[in-house]
Amino acid sequence: MDIQKAFGLKVQQLRKATGMSQEKFALSIDMDRTYYASVEAGKRNISICNIKKIADGFGVTLGELFEGI
Question: Are 23 and 9 spatial neighbours (Cβ–Cβ below 8 Å)?
């Protein structure tokens, strides 16, 4: 599986575990919902700064975010 798709799937799984919508989670980390949706869809080559925002939003380390990918 492509790294962008694998990362997007991991992020989607973590978000669904929180029970938040894409919009609510994106707003909570100060990210545009359409940008965030494209990350989950594996269509975005996301920057490390935005990866860190996502990890912080879930309360996990960068290592934990990439675990299993």
Answer: no
Per-residue pLDDT at 55: 98
* Tokens coding 47: 């920057």
CB distance 19 to 26 below 8 Å: no
How does DSSP classify residue 30? T
The average pLDDT across 31-59 equals 97
- pTM score, two decimals? 0.92
CA–CA dist 7, 39 (Å, integer): 8
Give residue 52's pLDDT band: very low, low, confident or very high (50, 70, 90): very high
Q: Which residues contact 28 (CB under 8 A, 6 or more apart)?
A: 20, 57
Residue 1 has a pLDDT of 77
Per-residue tokens: 42? 């594996």
